[in-house]
């Protein structure tokens, strides 16, 4: 018996030695995942020694899902960066907790219990009525254990510890915010930015629209080509296949007059079309007649429908396609009766294959000459209407009458008669906007806004034509609201609360972000990069290019610390508003 025990002890001692050696080897070189010697998985992040593992990450995700709302759409989640936001809110909490503890601040489990019993919980610094979330007004223990905690997928002890830490982080946030001061000067600036508001009347003169009213003559086209040949040749080289390898095309012009269902009215429409045709055959230009009679969208440009592929059809009534195939270049059709309209059509040219360079340059020169004259026409129209309005002419007479091309004259300088143009420029209003905002309908333009503020109160328009985005614009003050001492006194208290919240949140955000970066640099925040990278990877792959490489800057822990889940809040709000 003694011998057996001696042999057994020796065997047991040997196994113990083998076990110790195996353990030392494993700790030195790493244990296999199925070794059975696991001492817990690595955390995503350690913040001053406090571990944020995958379980804590899921708890934070659930907390934010219940209190803020997390978009369910995977693509939307990636665009917002939901996973990054969740992790950094947890890091932000633990960072604030560590700093609070350094300062001697504390929160107890009793504090968490009292908070919960009062029907509240804390999430990213906000105190939220969890009873309201659960559709109740009074505390009920079953509602907590069978309602809220299952939604959060957390046990009661862990929930109370989470809330204890959230309370302490909130206390730290409040401490930082309490150091913020808002001066009277800042309050006045905030008030003035809201109180100083304008509403403008304006008219916009778009050169592209006025160019449609211009009919360059052959001499004008030749002159423009001679003057700008190099630029036009450079443009031609960039146009690719516009003038090469073309199918059979025709340059189509048309006049369209609707055909009513009533026979008598249809007869009158036909008569109008015949009158238009008679004017053309009597020597009047097709463009002028189209502008006078046609109701088609091409009427402003003189009925110019452009180059159409004959085999593909025009997209108009079949009677037009049938007639187009039979017309010679320079020929005008008889009055055509379609199913819904009467037409008069004209063919001014045909082409196929490669367009000769000189013909292509002439076409580009024609377009450029029209644009140049349209620009000049728009400027003259704006100047003339401005002069008429400031001269005392009633605004409806300037802007609601046919033309609106410059009641003050001068349009004959660019070869367009006012009565022939038949263009109407409408008068619009911006509605109220502050000095720092873009002008509604016109965009950012500090110079225009300053001129409007400096304008005479009784002047219908500012004495200047502005150029905005290539268009010409005239503006006048419709309504002006200005900051006053009485208004400031009435708004001061509300403004103070608003500005204190904005400023303190900004100070807190910058301070927390800086402390997080500093803690990473000193090793007080340790990140397990491979686990974090796996956690914040999305299946949708929106952030990757065609080669699978990340197109956006990779996420780094601390990127969103200090924002209190701001991007997540914005994303949830945007999705809710989009429903």
Description:
The chain is α+β, with helices and mostly antiparallel strands and 579 residues long. 51% of the residues lie in helices and 14% in strands. The chain contains 22 helices and 14 strands. Strands 5, 10, 11, 12 and 13 form a five-stranded antiparallel sheet that branches. A four-stranded antiparallel sheet has the order 7-6-9-8, with helices on both faces. Strands 2-1-14 form a three-stranded antiparallel sheet. A hairpin with a 3-residue loop joins strand 8 (336-337) and strand 9 (341-353). The termini are far apart. Mean pLDDT is 85; it is low at 1-40 and 402-422.
User: What is the approximate shape?
Assistant: elongated
Report the average pLDDT across residues: 85
Low-confidence stretches: 1-40, 402-422
Q: What fraction of residues sit in β-strands? A: 5-15%
| Strand segment count | 14
The total count of helices amounts to 22
Distance between the termini: 83 Å
Report the major sheet: 5 strands, antiparallel
| Secondary-structure class | alpha+beta
Question: In percent, how helical is the residue content?
Answer: 40-55%
- Measured on Cα atoms, how large is the radius of gyration? 38 Å
